[in-house]
Design goal:
290 residues, alpha/beta, Rossmann fold, 27% helix, globular, signal, metalloprotease
Length: 290
């Protein structure tokens, strides 16, 4: 079975973008990067073919995606401060998600909500895997999105999602997204989950991240996201939405408004066309994984 990693989103980024440590942005691992490189190669081949034959309907066409979605409220009591959320909050969160993804031919269908009071499940320990929740609550197949709302993610983490794998061995308990209850609309803006679902659909962070050879990435070292149209840039370190160019020797400016950046979530409003292609490609990975 392929090894599924989770990519996290720090708590503070929804309001500011300061105080990061590299622990806030762990490397997804060799299995994911191998899959990412393979998918990127297939996408490049398709772009090259499209340049030769721009009117080829088979190459241009992109099917709409609808993803069944299950919410799991896991709280320590039925109080809002203990992780409990209302149906209205979940409805508003779904509206935020679909507003972000619908224009990219991806929609999410709210199928069910489960509610559990369990302190052990609701307070996530460091290094605790999604599988602990999945073993008790997960629904559907590998193309089904399971969203676990908890009272407390560990440390500086606001949420995390597992990345796609091409081999799962028929077991899906490890797969899904976990996030703090206070990131939902009314308390938060709901965009943390947009960022995390981007990971679930195979997107990396847009900025240069550490790799084995380069623990301190620069504009020419480290690892980007393998997407052809996201500009090379460094991790944000400010709390505003001002235009910036951290890699002036590279094409483009920092994508401050991109959902997969670590700029403040109030800045976010878009995915690129390349990221859209990647999400559709990784959706196909999810649907064909065995």
């Amino acid at each position: 079975m392929g090894v599924s990693s989770a990519l996290v989103f720090p708590r503070g980024v929804s309001n500011t973008a300061a105080g990061f440590s590299e622990a806030d942005c762990p490397d997804p691992g060799a299995d994911f990067w191998k899959l990412s490189a393979q998918v990127a190669g297939e996408e490049k081949l398709k772009r090259d073919l499209l340049e030769e034959d721009p009117h080829n309907a088979t190459l241009v066409a992109r099917a709409d995606i609808t993803i069944d979605t299950h919410f799991h409220v896991v709280a320590t009591s039925q109080k809002l401060e203990d992780g409990w959320v209302s149906d209205d909050q979940i409805k508003k969160q779904m509206e935020v998600i679909n507003a972000a993804f619908n224009k990219r031919q991806i929609s999410f269908k709210h199928v069910s909500t489960t509610r559990t009071v369990d302190q052990d499940l609701s307070i996530i320990d460091a290094n605790e895997k999604t599988e602990k929740l999945g073993n008790k609550l997960r629904k559907g197949d590998y193309g089904t999105l399971n969203l676990y709302i908890v009272k407390d993610m560990p440390g500086n983490v606001a949420g995390d999602c597992t990345l796609p794998v091409s081999r799962h061995g028929g077991k899906f308990a490890f797969d899904g997204c976990r996030f703090n209850s206070d990131t939902l609309p009314s308390k938060g803006d709901g965009k943390v989950l947009v960022h995390e679902i981007g990971h679930w659909l195979g997107l990396g962070h847009t900025f240069q991240s550490p790799d084995t050879a380069n623990p301190n990435p620069t504009c020419t070292t480290g690892r980007g996201d393998d997407v052809n149209d996201t500009p090379v840039h460094l991790k944000p370190n400010g709390g505003n939405c001002n235009a910036v160019d951290t890699c002036p020797g590279q094409p483009g400016t920092d994508p401050v408004s991109n959902y997969m950046n670590y700029s403040p979530s109030k800045c976010w409003s878009e995915f690129t066309d390349g990221q859209t292609t990647r999400m559709h490609s990784m959706w196909n990975v999810r649907k064909t994984a065995k």
